[in-house]
Amino acid sequence: STGVKVAESRVTRGNDQHEYPAINCRKHIAYLTDFGAVGDGKTSNTKAFESAIRNLSQYANDGGALLVVPPGKWLTGSFNLTSHFTLFLQNNAVILGSQ
C-alpha cells in the first residue's frame, strides 16, 4: 500500500463548517501518520517526512501530491520538498525543528 488516500475538503465541528480548498489542489493525498510519524513533540519524525516525500514524489507528473500533517507537535530534522508537492498543516499542527 502506498498510503495514498482521499481526504475530506470540508470539516464540520458542531455547527461550524470549514472548507480547506488547499486539500483539493493535488490529485494524490496522504497523511504523515501513514508513514509512522508520531506528533508527541518528542519523537523524531525526520524519516517519516523523508519517506512520505519520497513516496509521494512519484506523482509529480500525475497531478502532484499533498501531505497532510494532522494536529500535533511534529519534531523533525531538515528535509527537502519536491516540485508539485504541497505540505498542508491542519489546525494545531506544529513542525518543530530538532537541534
Q: Can you walk through the features of this model?
A:
The protein has 99 residues and is mostly beta strands. It has one domain (10-97): Pectate Lyase C-like, CATH 2.160.20. 11% of the residues lie in helices and 37% in strands. It has one helix and eight strands. The chain has one helix spanning 46-56, and strands at residues 10-13, 16-19, 28-31, 40-44, 65-69, 72-76, 85-89, 93-97. The protein has a three-stranded parallel beta sheet, with helices on one face. It has a three-stranded parallel beta sheet with strand order 4-6-8, with helices on one face. Strand 1 and strand 2 (16-19) form a beta hairpin. The radius of gyration is 13 Å and the shape is globular. The protein starts with 9 loop residues before the first strand and ends with a strand. Mean pLDDT is 83; it is low at 1-8.
Question: Which oligomerization state do the chains in this entry correspond to?
Answer: single chain
Instruction: Please indicate the percent range of residues in DSSP E strands (runs of 2 or more).
Output: 35-45%
- As a percent range, the share of helical residues equals 10-25%
Which word captures the global form? Answer: globular
| Secondary-structure element string | EEEEHEEEE
Query: Count of helical segments?
Result: 1
Total number of domains: 1
Low-confidence stretches are 1-8
Structural class: mainly beta
Q: Please write the CATH class name.
A: Mainly Beta
Mean pLDDT: 83
Instruction: Give the full name of the CATH homologous superfamily.
Output: Single-stranded right-handed beta-helix, Pectin lyase-like
The CATH architecture can be given as 3 Solenoid
End-to-end CA span = 33 Å
Report Rg. Answer: 13 Å
Largest sheet: 3 strands, parallel
